[in-house]
Amino acid sequence: MPKTLDRSWIEKNIPHHGRMCLLDEVMEWDASHIRCRSSTHRLPDHPLRSHGRLGAACGIEYAAQAMAVHGALTGGESARPEAGFLAALRDVRLHVLRLDDCDAELHCEAVLVAGNQGSALYEFALQSGARQLLRGRATVVLDAGNRASAGVSVPENA
User: Fold this and answer.
1) Total structural domains within the chain
2) Left if phi > 0, otherwise alpha if psi is -120 to 50, otherwise beta: which for 149?
3) Which of 17, 25, 90, 133 could bond 126 through an S-S bridge, CB–CB 3.0 to 4.6 Å?
4) Which runs of E-coded beta strand occur in the chain?
5) pTM
């Protein structure tokens, strides 16, 4: 099983930093899937809160960041995209109204369905404990640039 990766590693390898980096840890990953954990949904100063609440649709950003981390881990240093853009969402099902009232930490899973150098299709799900919060599919369009010159390092998948 792959080793876990902490928030520090995540922030160094995706475009989201500071409070906008929503993931705390990569729990497991391989070539076609990633599972991450977060407790940021309970923060009173969460950057996506509106009117004191964190709506369930904000869970899509958690999934998008998990996809970005997966791309950083599996893209290889020379082929890793500089950025990805969420191009389409399909079959999104919100099973709750909000995330900030979930007591347990969030677990986000993304599964790569298909992909190439220019795009990727993922299925994603977000849950808290045994409670399903949302699920759907996302198409991500990738920037052709890479970050190899920026010194990004990918840990061994051991």
Assistant:
1) 1
2) alpha
3) 133
4) 5-6, 25-30, 33-38, 84-94, 106-115, 119-128, 131-142
5) 0.86
Structural domain range at position 146: 5-150
pLDDT score of 85: 87
Confidence at residue 77, expressed as pLDDT on a 0 to 100 scale? 59
Query: What does the block give as tokens for 58?
Result: 């904000």
CB 21 within 8 A of CB 66: no
Amino acid residing at 73: L
Residue 87 backbone zone (phi > 0: left; psi -120 to 50: alpha; other: beta) = alpha
Residue with the two structure tokens 């996809």: 67
Per cent of the chain over pLDDT 90 is: 75
Position 81 pLDDT exceeds 70 = no
DSSP-based three-state secondary structure for 11: helix
Q: Cα–Cα distances in Å, from 149 out to 80, 86, 153?
A: 11, 24, 11
What average pLDDT does range 93-110 have in this prediction? 97
Q: CA-CA distance, 26 to 39, in Å (whole number)?
A: 13
Asked whether residue 157 is domain-assigned, the answer is: no
Q: Could you tell me which residue, 70 or 154, shows the higher pLDDT?
A: 70
Domain assignment present for residue 155? The answer is no
Strand partners, 28: 35
* Cβ-proximal residues to 96 (8 Å cutoff; 6+ apart), any chain: 56, 102, 131, 133, 134
